[in-house]
Write a structure and sequence with these properties.
Layout (H helix, E strand, L loop, with lengths): L5 E6 L3 H12 L4 E5 L5 H6 L1 H15 L1 H6 L11 H25 L3 E4 L2 E5 L2 E4 L3 E10 L3 E3 L13 E2 L1 H5 L7 E5 L3 H12 L3 E5 L11 H13 L3 E3 L3 E8 L2 E7 L5 E6 L1 E4 L3 E3 L31 E3 L10 H16 L15 E3 L4 E6 L2 H6 L4 E7 L4 H5 L6 E7 L5 E8 L2 H13 L4 H5 L10 H10 L7
Parallel strand pairs: 1-2, 1-6, 2-3, 6-17, 8-15, 9-10, 9-15, 10-11
Antiparallel strand pairs: 4-5, 5-6, 7-16, 12-13, 13-14, 18-19, 19-22, 20-21, 21-22
Bound molecules: flavin-adenine dinucleotide.
The site of flavin-adenine dinucleotide has 35 residues, from α1, β2, α2, α3 and α9.
């Protein structure tokens, strides 16, 4: 009989915490997860899922032009955005309830409340007292980063992604600070619904972590749809006038200009939730704002682990979940080869249309590292399925080692990118070469033919261009 009430207590039921809880229970650990808000965390409640619902509905709305091409007369004057909002909340609530069901099914105890670590084996939950546990997993996630000063988020006219997701009406115009995935996904949604969108990026290109060629291609596409995209511009001041917000931008040469918008979305990153959870009580200090962890996501305190947005890995739901699986497998002592996720194999997706998906090295990264690589591309405009479905923007781009055909980077901009990227990721994971991808038959007509053609292209030939 263990001296502790639980084998594992997890703080936070986001995609890190709830997945870890399910897996821990499956591995035989007596597990509890403590959540101050709703099961599913940011991802299901105020992140990935409601934003994808908005994106889906925005796409349906924008595709009215396809019906118009058929001669159908469409009157969109009755658009009621509160109905769009409502559907996005239904998707979030359905999945949050689904998490609660999965926790129950796996006999994970769900404790509602705010938790703090009181010792290496002790957690206090507000109103519920203290609990003892053999292991602790901290998965408290993150919140929108607030720039403060003139740009302090008030969720009225200066909003974060939270305010953007909870809005029941459409603004006339929005300025978006930050052109990462979150900023661009909202830009896409608002643009589809006819809102005036200006994206402001401090760096020299949008989606700065993506391959430069795809950043530039996407900028062209979004600009052609009526968005204004301003790169190399820092927002330095904000005031209000009768029309709304007036934002002063400054470029690298300190030249200033002013732009206006009814609302400002601040999408400049996330702040990890590491305060007031008792880290200091067990001697854990942060490194560059994040909890330092080892290969199995263990902190320096034996039995205490940390995963997800509070550690220095990409702030993505699937990363948090995988880290959770690895951490609990380690604490359960179950056999496994898995340890710290290989950063070269983390897929990342921006879900605007066209989608942008990638993993591994960009062309610039490969050059910087002095690798002898083949850069191969294949455009969707030469893919039958893309032509038939009128989605020909973009391409598949591969970065592969010249001598061996090893894939060290894959970048897809175009239809189905979020799914297609996984064929290439599996190929890398299984150590397949571009030649082996090329030797695998792909159904016709499919978008996946662009993957096989990009592999052919790296071998020096293509069939359809
Ligand atoms: C608008 C938006 C869109 C996004 N889209 C995507 C996407 O498409 N794909 C993707 O991979 N990622 C996306 N993300 C990022 C993703 O949501 C996060 O990376 C992910 O949720 C992190 O998971 P987590 O478990 O670490 O933390 P979280 O999901 O933040 O969950 C942490 C949980 O801990 C709880 N908590 C915190 N402190 C305490 C405490 N002291 N006691 C009890 N409970 C506590 C919180 O209430 C929260 O529920 C998006 C984020 C946003 C904001």
């Amino acid at each position: 009989m263990s001296d502790f009430q639980y084998d594992l207590m997890i703080i936070g039921a986001g995609p890190g915490g709830y997945v870890a809880a399910i897996r821990a229970a499956q591995l035989g650990l007596k597990t509890a997860v403590i959540e101050r808000d709703k099961p599913g965390g940011v991802c299901l409640n105020i992140g990935c899922i409601p934003s994808k619902s908005l994106i889906h509905q925005a796409t349906v709305f924008a595709e009215k032009s396809l019906l118009q091409d058929m001669g159908v007369k469409i009157d969109v004057s009755g658009l009621d955005f509160s109905k769009v909002f409502h559907k996005s909340r239904l998707a979030a609530e359905k999945l949050s309830q689904g998490v609660q069901f999965l926790l129950r099914k796996n006999r994970v105890e769900y404790i509602k409340g705010y938790a703090r670590v009181e010792g290496p084996h002790k957690i206090k939950v507000d109103d519920k007292g203290s609990f003892t546990t053999k292991n602790i997993l901290i998965a408290t996630g993150s919140r929108p980063r607030d720039l403060g000063g003139d740009f302090t988020i008030n969720e009225q006219d200066i909003i974060s992604s939270n305010g953007a997701l909870m809005a029941t009406t459409l603004p006339k115009s929005v300025v978006i600070l930050g052109s990462g995935a979150i900023g661009l996904e909202f830009a896409y949604v608002w643009n589809c619904f006819g809102v005036g969108v200006t994206v402001v990026e401090m760096l020299d290109r949008i989606l700065p972590l993506e391959d430069r060629e795809h950043s530039e291609l996407l900028k062209k596409i979004l600009t052609s749809r009526g968005m204004t995209i301003m790169t190399g511009q820092k927002a330095v001041a904000l005031k209000r006038d009768t029309k709304g917000l007036v934002i002063t931008l400054e470029d690298a040469a300190k030249k200033q200009q002013q732009i206006e918008g009814e609302k400002l979305l601040v999408a400049v990153g996330r702040t990890p939730n590491t305060e007031n959870i008792g880290l200091e009580s067990i001697g854990i200090s942060l490194e560059r704002g994040f909890v330092p962890v080892g290969d199995y996501y263990q902190t320096k305190v034996p039995g205490v682990y940390a995963i997800g947005d509070i550690i220095a890995s990409p702030l993505l739901a699937h990363v948090a979940s995988k880290e959770g699986e690895i951490a609990v497998t380690h604490m359960a002592g179950a056999p496994s080869h898995e340890k710290r996720i290989d950063p070269m194999e983390i897929p990342s997706v921006t879900y605007c249309i066209p989608e942008v998906a990638s993993f591994g090295l960009t062309e610039d990264d490969a050059k910087k590292q002095g690798l002898a690589v083949n850069i191969s591309r294949f455009p969707f405009s030469a893919i039958g399925r893309a032509v038939a479905s009128e989605t020909t923007e973009g391409q598949v781009k591969l970065v592969s080692i010249k001598q061996t055909g090893e894939i060290v980077g894959a970048h897809i901009l175009g239809p189905g990118a979020s799914d297609l990227i996984h064929e290439l990721l599996l190929a890398r994971h299984a150590e397949l070469t571009t030649e082996e991808i090329g030797s695998m038959i792909h159904a016709h007509p499919t978008l996946a033919e662009a993957v096989v053609e990009s592999a052919y292209s790296s071998l020096g030939h293509t069939l359809h261009i």
